[in-house]
Write a structure and sequence with these properties.
The chain contains 9 helices and 5 strands. The chain is an alpha/beta fold. It has a 5-stranded parallel beta sheet, with helices on both faces. Helix 2 packs across helix 3. The termini are close together. It binds adenosine monophosphate (AMP). The site of adenosine monophosphate has 17 residues, from helix 2 and helix 3.
């Protein structure tokens, strides 16, 4: 199974991805986690992107596409994967389509988690307050920027995938279990 999880920050992509990993025996490819790992390791990429992440902006399409292109070649992706946080722009979606076409792979669907903006802000503030490791972009200013970036650059992907007939909208404002059940039904 090959899926995209699409939704704004705080929509529950990570939570639902973890559950799908267990259910289907596939891997979660979170570009945010990959970039945070690079920052923590102070690698060349990490040093380059740290400021971008902290400000809540997007790293370049070129960089993130090359990271994903390498990652999906790995053996553990042979069984399938969930893309969590990628693609985030139309250019990334086009690049992904080309990548998958070259490998003769088809996506099984794009799950869109729909959550009202007011709820997102609350969820992320709760996440920041409760988690042991606070993300450097879970603060008011970066968060506003991340939502703004989502609305401008990522939200157009809803129509993009709707047009391709692969969009599966799910009400992300229910309980975790109810959202999970709706995703399973949609797939
Ligand atoms: P996330 O954990 O998905 O919220 O991602 C955290 C941050 O990593 C984002 O705010 C961006 O700075 C960066 N990032 C993650 N995925 C992408 C992507 N597909 N394109 C550009 N930047 C990304």
């Amino acid at each position: 199974m090959r899926l995209i999880l699409l939704g704004p920050p705080g929509a529950g992509k990570g939570t639902q991805a973890a559950r799908l990993v267990e259910k289907h025996g596939i891997v979660q490819l979170s570009t945010g986690d990959m970039l945070r790992a690079a920052v923590a390791a102070e690698s060349e990429v990490g040093l380059k992107v740290k400021g971008v992440l902290d400000r809540g902006e997007l790293v370049s399409d070129e960089l993130i596409v090359s990271i994903i292109a390498d990652r999906i070649e790995a053996q553990d992706c042979a069984n399938g994967f969930i893309l969590d946080g990628f693609p985030r722009t139309i250019a990334q979606a086009d690049a992904l389509e080309e990548l998958l076409a070259n490998k003769g792979i088809k996506l099984d669907g794009v799950v869109q988690l729909e959550v009202d903006e007011a709820i997102l802000l609350d969820r992320i503030k709760t996440r920041a307050a409760e988690s042991a490791e606070v993300r450097s972009d879970d603060n008011e200013e970066a968060l506003k920027k991340r939502l703004d970036v989502y609305n401008k650059q990522t939200a157009p992907l809803v129509d993009y995938y709707k047009g391709k007939g692969s969009l599966k909208p799910v009400d992300g404002m229910q309980s975790v279990d109810a959202v999970a059940a709706q995703i399973d039904a949609a797939l």
